[in-house]
Design brief:
CATH class of the largest domain: Alpha Beta
Strand order of the largest sheet: 3-2-1-4-5-10-9-6-7-8
Structural class: alpha/beta
Strand content: 15-25%
Number of strands: 10
Order of helices and strands: EHEHEHEHEEHEHEHEHHE
Largest sheet: 10 strands, mixed
Number of helices: 9
Distance between the termini: 19 Å
CATH superfamily of the largest domain: HUPs
CATH architecture of the largest domain: 3-Layer(aba) Sandwich
CATH topology of the largest domain: Rossmann fold
Number of domains: 2
Helix content: 40-55%
Length: about 280
């Protein structure tokens, strides 16, 4: 059984996370844990400078008020979190998925995932968070942190789910991208999809052999894998192919010793995940 952790918040992407999980559940037997983490910023007020000319009694009263405000914020955050989890569970159940648990936690999202991921096979997270409508050109601040820290495959859900029939695998010839190919070949979730293997680079005998070797693994697993070796920068080649040829899902390796590494894990958000409007599977 595949165990999935679905990460939700109050954004529209929470619905998409649930819909992507429901699609996965239709492909294989799953158990699901929907997780909402209340961060420290959601529970406390901004610090107030009390070093000025404030009398002791007034200062004590103000501190008591702030403490009560923090307690009130915590109660509201917990109530809101439970409602979000209930809505997510109901959405999954309405899609015919019933093996669903919910979990509400306080603390740091990454710390929580590192604590829970040993019992998970897959993590599903939205591309953006609760500021999605205000920062459409940026990825969620937690996404990169989660991708950096976890050792599990991750599905990065797009804004809205649509049926998935065509898979594009971005391949660079490195060890991690070959591992991604191997994981795709053995995945019951991806079985049956139309598949194309894409490599951005020069047409050289070495690159062609790497591409053909990877395609052989997919064909042995029953995929009718097309191949393409296209010159140009990887981000432009891959995002352009997704858009032009109408792929529904992009799969890549998470850490590789090539330009693709910087597409995923950089000091800022990644151009490719930002520009592609389809879900992305990051294999580790």
């Amino acid at each position: 059984m595949t165990r999935i952790i679905g990460l939700i918040d109050g954004s529209i992407y929470a619905q998409s996370v649930c819909d992507h999980i429901a699609w996965i559940a239709g492909k294989t037997d799953v158990s699901i844990e929907i997780l909402h983490v209340i961060g420290r910023r959601d529970l406390s007020t901004e610090p107030v400078n009390l070093s000025g000319n404030i009398g002791l009694g007034a200062r004590t009263a103000l501190l008591e008020e702030l403490a009560e405000l923090d307690a009130q914020k915590a109660r509201i955050a917990h109530k809101r979190g439970r409602l979000l989890l209930e809505e997510a569970k109901a959405r999954l159940q309405s899609a015919g998925v019933h093996n669903v648990e919910t979990k509400l936690r306080n603390g740091d999202l990454v710390d929580t995932i590192q604590e829970l991921e040993d019992n998970a096979d897959l993590i599903v997270i939205g591309k953006r968070g609760e500021g999605a409508d205000f920062a459409k050109g940026h990825l969620g601040s937690n996404l990169e942190r989660v991708v950096r820290s976890t050792h599990k495959p991750i599905v990065v859900a797009s804004r809205a789910f649509k049926p998935i029939t065509k898979l594009l695998i971005a391949y660079d010839g490195g060890a991690m991208s070959m591992k991604a190919v191997d994981q795709v070949s053995r995945s019951p979730i991806l079985s049956g999809l139309g598949c194309k293997l894409l490599m951005a680079g020069a047409e050289t005998p070495e690159n062609r052999k790497k591409l053909d070797d990877a395609a052989g693994i997919l064909k042995a697993a029953g995929y009718g894998a097309e191949t393409a070796l296209v010159p140009g920068h990887a981000d432009k080649v891959i995002s352009g192919t997704v858009e032009r040829e109408g792929f529904d899902l992009l799969a890549m390796g998470g850490y590789s010793h090539s330009r693709l590494r910087n597409l995923f894990i950089g000091s800022t958000t990644t151009e490719m995940i930002r520009s592609c409007k389809v879900p992305v599977v990051i294999f580790r």
